[in-house]
UniProtKB/TrEMBL annotation, chain A:
<feature type="transmembrane region" description="Helical">
    <location>
        <begin position="28"/>
        <end position="49"/>
    </location>
</feature>
<protein>
    <recommendedName>
        <fullName>Cytochrome bo(3) ubiquinol oxidase subunit 3</fullName>
    </recommendedName>
</protein>
<comment type="similarity">
    <text>Belongs to the cytochrome c oxidase subunit 3 family.</text>
</comment>
<keyword id="KW-0472">Membrane</keyword>
<dbReference type="InterPro" id="IPR035973">
    <property type="entry name" value="Cyt_c_oxidase_su3-like_sf"/>
</dbReference>
<keyword id="KW-0249">Electron transport</keyword>
<dbReference type="InterPro" id="IPR000298">
    <property type="entry name" value="Cyt_c_oxidase-like_su3"/>
</dbReference>
<comment type="subunit">
    <text>Heterooctamer of two A chains, two B chains, two C chains and two D chains.</text>
</comment>
<dbReference type="InterPro" id="IPR033946">
    <property type="entry name" value="Ubiquinol_oxase_su3_dom"/>
</dbReference>
Automatic annotation (TrEMBL), chain B:
<keyword id="KW-0560">Oxidoreductase</keyword>
<feature type="transmembrane region" description="Helical">
    <location>
        <begin position="75"/>
        <end position="97"/>
    </location>
</feature>
<dbReference type="GO" id="GO:0005886">
    <property type="term" value="C:plasma membrane"/>
</dbReference>
<dbReference type="InterPro" id="IPR005171">
    <property type="entry name" value="Cyt_c_oxidase_su4_prok"/>
</dbReference>
<comment type="similarity">
    <text>Belongs to the cytochrome c oxidase bacterial subunit 4 family.</text>
</comment>
<dbReference type="GO" id="GO:0015078">
    <property type="term" value="F:proton transmembrane transporter activity"/>
</dbReference>
<protein>
    <recommendedName>
        <fullName>Cytochrome bo(3) ubiquinol oxidase subunit 4</fullName>
    </recommendedName>
</protein>
<dbReference type="InterPro" id="IPR050968">
    <property type="entry name" value="Cytochrome_c_oxidase_bac_sub4"/>
</dbReference>
<dbReference type="InterPro" id="IPR014210">
    <property type="entry name" value="Cyt_o_ubiqinol_oxidase_su4"/>
</dbReference>
Amino acid sequence: MSDTTAATPAGAEAAHDAERYAEKDFGFWIYLMTDAVIFALLFATYIVLSRGTAGGPTGSDLFSLPHTFGETMLLLVSSTTFGMASLAARAGNRGGVLAWLAITAVLGLAFVGMEIQEFAGMIAKGAGPDRSGFLSGFFTLVGTHGVHVSVGLISIVVMMGQIATKGLTVPVLSRLMRLALFWHFLDIVWIGIFSVVYLPGVL
Amino acid sequence: MQHTASTQGPDLRAYLTGLVLALILTAIPFALVYFKLLSTGPTVAAIVIAAIVQVLVHLRFFLHIDFRRTPKENLLTLFFACFLIMVMVGGSLWIMIDLHYRMAL
């Protein structure tokens, strides 16, 4: 209780640590913003290429709205369950964090599974990324997002390992917070994908 | 130390509000397209508006961007990224659509 006064060496160290974590949070935020710029340019590329179907299949031939809606729900609910994990972490509930992270990972895995199923189905129909400019743009944009989600999944598993072995220490909580930002950010990118790619594609 | 951290920051209400608003803002454009409720122009407009509002909802309720609590430099980089995106995406589309129009002449 008394160790939080800034005059003691321990207090000064804690203040220094807090500053270090604030710097890491800001650095991660800058990374997210640069990632947003990458996605924005992939969106622009897709929009430019989207009419270039080269006589091949169009969006309305390939996209299934119920499938996209399912993916959207998985990602949205997983964003909420990650929020529950953050709340459990703040309450110091280690078991709760692990349980919510596990649910988030299962939902994220289901999303990646649905995406792989969609890609495999398209490629089997001869609508792979090499078929037309439209499909090159589609696979680049949606695939980049899928790779991000997969990296997020690996990070969640690593995070669960850290929480299980180290507990909810200050560095672990700081990493969990940044991973939460990453996960919520990917859900924002997905809003762009269904609004720019899938919904106009089947119109 | 943990106690002072738990007195600030988002609560369950924030996440659930975000979830409900996001569900509504997702359901509207999907329903409009799936059931073909409007003609093409208004549908596209509705998709764009719902997407922008949903992005703001996610920023507010999931990433907890807030004009009071979020550090000023984070807000500044967010606005700078938005500016860059507008210049690069807007500029690219402007040039490419103009080129497309001129090639068709």
